[in-house]
Specification:
The chain is an alpha/beta fold and 1064 residues long. It contains 36 helices and 29 strands. Among the domains are: 53 residues; 191 residues, Efflux pump adaptor protein, beta barrel domain (Elongation Factor Tu (Ef-tu), domain 3, Beta Barrel), CATH 2.40.30; 205 residues, Rossmann fold; 205 residues, Rossmann fold (3-Layer(aba) Sandwich), CATH 3.40.50. GO terms for molecular function: ATP binding; DNA helicase activity; hydrolase activity; transcription termination site sequence-specific DNA binding.
Length: 1064
């Protein structure tokens, strides 16, 4: 069917909401209609779009005033005034005016009373009849009843009769019953629809209030602080405002009064940390103008584009400091602004980046908001050049603040302030067995999935290390209410947002979210046991997301679909543009020869201007069309998504807020690692069921302010709910990660022996190096070293432990050269300086590529990861200074549960036994005969297949003396002097212990580890020769005859079996 131009014009105006064309269509509908209209007649659509936009612009801008006439009027007015002033004074005959006499309040009152008395008197009202019953008599009753009633009235003084009172009570009761249980007739159905409509409007209003929180109180406080203050607490600190977080709160107001001061304390500490690190680059900005708004000034500045786009010195929503720096070097100086000038500057003030606009020129327009109370602001004037320095990014803090102030409008606000989780329910055994069969989970996982999906409000799942938290979350996703029906099919619906409910998956870190997204995209099982891949959207910046899931981000999916849309470029405009260029060149030639008339010049200018205008219009239309297409695609992708994943802070993305999406079910992974205000951010989208998965026995949230931490600000919402209701937690009690010898102590110490090992875990985690007693599944290396402290960072380090750990790993490489050690070893420590020293020790010997093979990290940075071998460096070596970070049992739990096959602890017993938990650990290892006395060079005495010469069961710590260690050290040095001489006369070390120090360093192109993998089963009765791998990497010394330096005896059960069911 062909549409006429008039009808098509009306349709386009409807889509663009032109004057007198308002409508209730949403963005998706208008965009779809515009795209179809453009397919019919693109030129007409572009012309109408341009006309409507110009009309809107003309209405929004005030009409231009005639500057000349205004100036003439002003000057004429001034002339009249001056001439009138200069005229000689002329007295005119004006009658005199006498003002009325002023009256006192008493005289005014007397006058009013006199006026009132002049008014006519009114008749008094008739007297009230006696008694209380003043109702008229009922006419339609019998004579007998009338006589009876009249008699009672005369006797009782017109009171209600007994019968009337009973009848009235019955009538009232019937009315109440009718309200409580309405009948569903046609009128009631209509009223129910009205009630549903009112409830929907109420929910929309609550959503608006949750998403649009005024952040003025936050910035009124922050922008009034002084950047020169280096103290731990801000200048406006008031002790009376701060109180510890309680397990329950009486009201939302009480909750806000407790959390808001602590949130500001954390913000202040983040500012102090940024000043200490000092990694940001100073930049220049030029002041344009300023305008006053409430308690702030908005300052309009200009900054070079490369500062914003290339070096990225600051961005939207950043907190910066503006400085008036003296002796600023010229802008042409390529060295930039010296850091010393910035640090010495004392005339400064905080500013928040409100808006950044990129212009066509080399500069970008930046709007900054500053406090009007700051005295420095009044010294700022136009054209002044200032220095800016980024202090902090305010996005997360602002979202936490908005969640705090929007909490009163949350559906789960009462459960949050009271910290009440849903109680644990005992599910049906048949249902549990079905879940186990379909989803391949164990009992505890099946109970957690079934109970949390059926529950309301908050549900808690505690998942100790290796218990399959991710697998449990996948089961929750499949069975979540409202998602189960949609997720069972791969076909995406094309209805509106409300027709398809979704589930929101969040975690505190990008790494945790990416791990979940990776597992979901690989496929999950539905209720029929069939594997399928649901539609997943990952929200967040692409540069912070794992490469394996980057294609699932909203930005990447939108760009991919936009690239498929063909751009309908108007070739006629290009042809006109080329013709104008040819004409311009001809005119230039004529101009040079002076053969061009003024008429021809004016015509050429007019023609060129028309083409340029047409080009600009086409360019504007193309940009608008592209933005419409982008919004439509964005809408469709999120509408068709079945699962949306983001970080806790990223869940407050503007796209979700703009589309008014609702997420009734929210799942938070690692919920015990986030502060409470972060945990409630994703609940703003109408959440009615929140499932939190975490482990309170592992690391708590990271809080910078120690003062705020003393008020329990680092406590998570998960922990607060668990403190109130310890029995309302689903515990995943089977671990599938660790060798039983590793899990024994953590299970008993941290989980009251409730954590059990999965089936065949000993067989699954056996490795070839377990043949050496010192390199078994679990070992404590007792070492006497010396701890030192970095004067700048105040972090501890221990060089002796670094040397011993290097020897242990060298010994492993030498004794098992056929194993691919890539990504099998992790070296962790609670101190950053020790991690830095360990990394430097290995890099100095093997080159930088060794860091790609061995993971060096802090305990906090290693949470959520696992390796075959974990070597834990304790650092502490003095028994009179305590154990510091090691005293935190949550950090200790994380360190002891990262290993799959072997956990080796390197530390000083004398220093560690001052802490009860560490004393228990040592006593447990000592009873199990798993303590080895270590020193620099002790690995030379380790043999494959022989008993441990250095392992002894030590009865108590007092028996371990420095004299014993010194004897061992002396013995070691004596043995080291005995050398064997090779055929060429060079020393090559012991014949049975090759000198590993003779290895050459790894080249930048070589692999530092052998790449030949352990192949599997080898007979225990045979001594197998291990050939040198041909791949580049570590070069092991060989015997003179060319054979390898040692023989390895390996038991026959050494294949790496597959993991059992239930593993995450």
């Amino acid at each position: 069917m062909q549409l006429s131009e008039e009808l098509l014009t009306v349709l386009v105006k409807l889509c663009l909401r032109a004057k007198k064309f308002n409508n209730k269509m949403n963005i998706e509908q208008t965009g779809e209609l515009l795209l179809r209209a453009r397919a019919i007649d693109s030129k007409l659509v572009e012309n109408v779009s341009f006309a409507v936009e110009e009309e809107k612009k003309s209405k929004s801008q005030p009409p231009p005033t005639d500057t000349k006439s205004e100036l003439q009027y002003t000057s004429r007015k001034q002339q009249n005034t001056l001439s009138g002033f200069l005229k000689p004074y002329v007295r005119e005959n004006v009658p005199s005016f006498n003002p009325p006499k002023r009256m006192s309040k008493l005289e005014i009152a007397q006058a009013k009373l006199a006026e009132k008395r002049k008014m006519e008197a009114k008749e008094p009202a008739p007297a009230r009849p006696s008694g209380f019953n003043i109702k008229k008599k009922i006419v339609n009753i019998s004579d007998s009843e009338s006589d009876h009633d009249s008699d009672n009235e005369t006797q009782d003084g017109n009171l209600f009769t007994k019968e009337q009172v009973v009848a009235k009570m019955k009538k009232t009761k019937a009315a109440l019953q009718s309200l409580q249980a309405p009948r569903f007739n046609s009128s009631n159905t209509q009223s129910m629809k009205q009630i549903e409509l009112m409830q929907k409007k109420k929910q929309e209003e609550l959503m608006r209030l949750r998403l649009n929180v005024d952040t003025t109180p936050l910035y009124k406080t922050i922008l009034s602080w002084s950047y020169n203050n280096d103290k731990e607490l801000p200048s406006d600190y008031d002790e009376s405002k701060y109180k510890p977080i309680t397990d329950k709160f009486e009201s939302v107001k009480d909750y806000r009064k407790t959390f808001e001061p602590l949130l500001l304390l954390e913000c202040w500490q983040s500012i102090q940390r940024a000043k200490q690190v000092g990694s940001e680059i100073p930049f220049r900005l030029t002041i344009g103008s300023r305008s006053a708004t409430d308690s702030f000034f908005d300052i309009y500045t200009s900054v070079k584009k490369e500062v914003v786009n290339e070096t990225r010195c600051f961005g939207d929503n950043d907190l910066i400091v503006l400085m008036m720096v003296d002796n600023l070097p010229p802008e042409e100086d390529n060295r930039g602004i010296p850091r010393k000038l910035v640090e010495k500057c004392t005339v400064n003030c905080f500013a928040k980046v409100k808006e950044i606009k990129n212009t066509n020129g080399p500069y970008a327009d930046v709007v900054l908001r500053v406090s009007s109370d700051n005295k420095v602001v009044h010294k700022i004037s136009p054209s002044m050049e200032l220095v800016g320095l980024k202090v902090n990014t305010m996005t997360t803090l602002e979202r936490e603040f908005s969640s705090l102030y929007g909490l009163q409008y949350y559906d789960l606000s009462n459960e949050i302030i009271q910290a009440v989780p849903d109680p644990v329910e005992t599910p049906d055994e048949k249902k549990i067995n079905k879940l186990k069969d379909v989803y391949d989970v164990n009992d505890s996982q099946a109970k957690a999935i079934s109970g949390t999906v059926q529950g309301q409000g908050f549900s808690l799942i505690q998942g100790p290390p290796g218990t399959g938290k991710t697998k449990t979350i996948l089961g929750v996703i499949v069975l979540a209410p409202g998602v189960k029906a949609n997720i069972s099919t791969s076909k995406a619906s094309t209805g509106s947002v409300d027709n398809k409910r979704k589930i929101l998956i969040c975690a505190p870190s990008n790494a945790a979210v990416d791990e979940l997204v990776l597992r979901i995209r690989n496929g999950i099982k539905n209720s029929k046991g069939e594997t399928f891949k649901p539609n997943v959207v990952r929200l967040g910046k692409s540069d912070a997301i794992n490469e394996q899931v980057k294609d699932l981000t909203l930005e990447e999916q939108v760009d991919a679909q936009l690239s498929k849309i063909k751009n309908n470029d108007d070739s006629s405009i290009r042809a006109e543009h080329r013709a104008c260029i040819v004409e311009r060149d001809e005119l230039r030639k004529k101009l040079e020869s002076n053969s061009l008339t003024e008429t021809e010049i004016s015509k050429a200018e007019m023609r060129l201007q028309e083409v340029l205008t047409k080009h600009e219009r086409a360019k504007g239309c193309k940009y608008r069309n592209r933005e419409i297409e982008r919004r439509n695609i964005q809408f469709k992708i999120l509408n068709n998504a079945q699962v949306v994943c983001s970080t806790l802070s990223g869940s407050a993305h503007d796209v979700l807020a703009g589309m008014s999406l609702t997420f009734e079910t929210v799942v938070i992974d690692e919920a015990a690692q986030c502060i409470e205000l972060s945990a409630i951010i994703p609940l703003r989208y109408g959440c009615k069921k929140c499932i939190m998965v975490g482990d309170p026995n592992q690391l708590p949230p990271t809080v910078l302010s120690q003062k705020a931490a003393s008020f329990k600000y680092e406590q998570s919402l998960f922990v607060r709910m668990q403190n109130n209701h310890k029995d309302s937690v689903y515990l995943l009690d089977v671990q599938y990660r660790m060798h039983p010898e590793i899990s024994a102590f953590p299970s008993r110490e941290f989980y009251t022996s409730k954590l059990k090992d999965g089936p065949n875990m000993k067989l699954l985690t056996e490795r070839p190096w377990h043949e050496i007693e010192e390199y078994g599944p679990y070992r404590f290396f007792n070492l006497r070293g010396r701890q030192n402290i970095n004067d700048k960072t105040k972090s501890l380090y221990n060089t002796t432990e670094c040397k011993v750990i290097l020897e242990i790993i060298e010994s492993l490489y030498r004794k098992f050269p056929n194993i691919d050690w890539s990504n099998k070893i992790g070296v962790i420590s609670p101190y950053k300086e020790q991690v830095r020293l360990l990394k430097k020790t290995f890099v100095d010997k093997y080159g930088f590529l060794i860091t790609k093979q061995i993971d060096f990290n802090t305990v906090d940075g290693f949470q959520g990861q696992e390796k075959d071998i974990i070597i834990f460096s304790c650092v502490r070596a003095e028994n009179n200074t305590g154990v510091g970070f090691l005293a935190d049992i949550r950090r200790m739990n994380v360190a002891l549960t990262r290993a799959r096959s072997s956990l080796w602890i390197v530390g000083s017993v004398d220093a560690l036994v001052s802490n009860k938990t560490w004393r228990d650990l040592f006593e447990d290892a000592n009873k199990r005969n798993l303590v080895t006395q270590a020193y620099v060079g002790f690995t030379k005495n380790i043999r494959i297949g022989e008993g441990n010469a250095n392992s002894s069961q030590t009865p108590n710590t007092q028996n371990i003396t420095r004299a014993d260690a010194n004897k061992k050290t002396i013995s070691h040095h004596d043995n080291a002097k005995k050398r064997t001489i090779s055929d060429d006369g060079k020393k090559i070390g012991h014949s049975d212990n090759p000198d590993f120090s003779k290895m050459r360093k790894i080249s930048k192109t070589s692999n530092p580890l052998p790449v030949k993998k352990y192949s599997g089963q080898i007979s225990a009765n045979k001594m197998t020769k291990i050939s040198q791998p041909k791949s580049s990497g570590v070069i092991l010394p060989r015997a003179p005859n060319g054979a390898p330096s040692g023989l390895v005896k390996i038991s026959d059960k050494k294949k790496y079996p597959t993991k059992p069911s239930g593993r995450k």
